[in-house]
């Protein structure tokens, strides 16, 4: 928890359990092993191009 508090000081200590932190670090490890390590590139805005999960909520014709 001390490490997590250093990298994310505003997290809610009452709602985030040790198992949540462990799971988050395991997911991070999976991403790194999968070759996904440039998170700044992923977080850049794409100027409206590309896919977006909310696009699937458009009204259907008919």
Written overview of the protein:
By secondary structure, the chain is an all-alpha fold. It has a domain at 2-42. The protein is 44% helix and 0% strand. It is built from three helices and no strands. It has helices spanning 2-7, 18-33, 39-43. The termini are far apart.
How does the SSE layout of this entry go?
Blueprint (H helix, E strand, L loop, with lengths): L1 H6 L10 H16 L5 H5 L19
Rounded to the nearest angstrom, the distance between the terminal CA atoms is 53 Å
Beta fraction of the residues? under 5%
Net shape: extended
Tell me the series of helices and strands, N- to C-terminal. Answer: HHH
What proportion of the residues is helical, as a percent range? Answer: 40-55%
Number of strands: 0
Short note summarizing the structure:
With 62 residues, the chain is an all-alpha fold.
Structural features:
44% helix, single chain, 62 residues, mainly alpha
